[in-house]
C-alpha cells in the first residue's frame, strides 16, 4: 500500500510540475500602437504619405544608391524588417513591413498603398511582397519577423490592403485567388506553414480576420510570401495583433 501511495504521489508531483511550466508561459500581443508615425513622408517628386513609418526614413547613401535593409520596428521582443531603395535615383522601391494608421477605402492606386480595407483598429502593419521575378538582392524585401527568443506564435489578424481590394473590385475577379503563406523557422529549419486565402474565387477579405498560427510551433523567425493568379494585382496585405507565447 505504501508503494502504491508513493507512486501516486510521484505522479501528482510530475503533473503539478508540468502544469507549473505551462503557467510560466506568458502571452504577448503586438499592437503597433507604440510606433511613431510620420507625416508627408516620401521622395521628392513622388507620392507623399501621412501616418506611415517605412524604410525611407532610415535609408542612407551606400555607394550611389540611398537604401536601407534592416529592422524597422520592435515590440515585445518581435522585430519587423523592411527594405527601401532609390535604386541610384532611377526609381523608388520597397518591400517587407511598414507601419500605418490609414483606412481610406476609396482612393485608387499606389497613392493609397498604406491603407487597410477594414474597420479601424488603430495602427497596423502593411506587408508588401515584391515580384520574385525582379529580385532586389536585399535580405528583407519580403515581410520578416525575427524574435529575440524562440517563441510560439498563436495568431494574428489579417486584412486586405485597399490598393489590392480596389484593384480586385474593378476587374472580373471571379477566378482570382491570392494566397499568403506564413512560414515559421527555428534557425534554418522550417517548422511549419499556414496558407491564408486572402482572395478565393474572387471573394476577398472585407475586414480583419483572425489567422491561427499554432501549426508553426516554436520559432525564432516568421516569413510571409504571396501568390496571386492575377499578375497585375498589387501584392499587399495588412496584419495586426500578432499574439505569441514565450
Which features does this protein show?
single chain, 5-stranded antiparallel barrel, globular, Jelly Rolls, 246 residues, mainly beta, 2 helices, 44% strand
Layout of helices and strands, plus pairs?
Layout: H1 2-24, E1 27-30, E2 52-53, E3 60-62, E4 65-75, E5 78-85, E6 93-100, E7 116-117, E8 124-128, E9 144-161, H2 162-169, E10 178-186, E11 189-200, E12 203-204, E13 209-212, E14 219-228, E15 236-245
Antiparallel strand pairs: 1-15, 2-6, 3-4, 4-5, 5-6, 5-9, 6-8, 7-9, 8-15, 9-13, 9-14, 9-15, 10-11, 10-14, 11-12
Number of domains: 1
- Note the beta-strand portion: 35-45%
Strand order of the largest sheet: 5-6-8-15-9
What is the CA-CA span between the terminal residues? 42 Å
Oligomer: single chain
Give the name of the CATH architecture.
Answer: Sandwich
Order of helices and strands: HEEEEEEEEEHEEEEEE
Rg, nearest Å: 21 Å
Regarding CATH, which class? Answer: Mainly Beta
- Percent of residues in helices: 10-25%
Number of strands: 15
In the CATH hierarchy, the third-tier topology is known as: Jelly Rolls
Question: Which geometry do the CA atoms define?
Answer: globular
Low-pLDDT parts are 1-21
Amino acid at each position: 500500500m505504501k508503494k502504491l501511495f508513493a507512486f501516486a504521489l510521484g505522479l501528482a508531483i510530475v503533473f503539478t510540475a508540468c502544469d507549473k511550466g505551462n503557467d510560466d508561459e506568458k502571452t504577448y500581443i503586438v499592437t503597433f500602437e507604440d510606433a511613431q508615425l510620420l507625416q508627408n513622408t516620401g521622395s521628392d517628386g513622388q507620392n507623399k504619405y501621412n501616418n506611415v513609418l517605412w524604410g525611407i526614413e532610415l535609408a542612407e547613401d551606400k555607394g550611389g544608391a540611398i537604401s536601407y535593409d534592416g529592422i524597422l520596428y520592435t515590440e515585445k521582443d518581435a522585430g519587423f524588417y523592411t527594405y527601401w531603395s532609390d535604386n541610384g535615383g532611377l526609381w523608388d522601391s520597397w518591400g517587407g513591413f511598414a507601419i500605418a494608421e490609414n483606412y481610406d477605402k476609396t482612393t485608387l492606386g499606389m497613392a493609397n498603398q498604406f491603407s487597410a480595407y477594414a474597420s479601424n483598429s488603430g495602427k497596423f502593419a502593411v506587408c508588401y511582397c515584391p515580384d520574385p521575378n525582379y529580385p532586389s538582392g536585399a535580405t528583407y524585401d519580403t515581410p520578416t519577423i525575427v524574435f529575440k527568443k524562440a517563441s510560439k506564435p498563436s495568431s494574428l489578424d489579417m486584412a486586405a490592403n485597399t490598393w489590392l481590394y480596389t484593384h480586385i473590385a474593378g476587374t472580373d475577379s471571379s477566378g482570382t485567388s491570392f494566397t499568403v503563406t506564413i512560414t515559421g523557422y527555428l534557425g534554418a529549419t522550417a517548422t511549419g506553414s499556414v496558407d491564408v486565402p486572402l482572395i478565393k474565387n474572387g471573394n476577398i477579405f472585407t475586414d480583419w480576420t483572425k489567422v491561427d498560427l499554432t501549426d508553426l510551433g516554436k520559432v525564432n523567425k516568421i516569413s510571409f510570401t504571396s501568390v496571386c493568379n492575377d499578375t497585375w494585382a498589387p501584392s499587399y496585405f495588412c496584419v495586426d495583433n500578432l499574439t505569441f507565447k514565450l
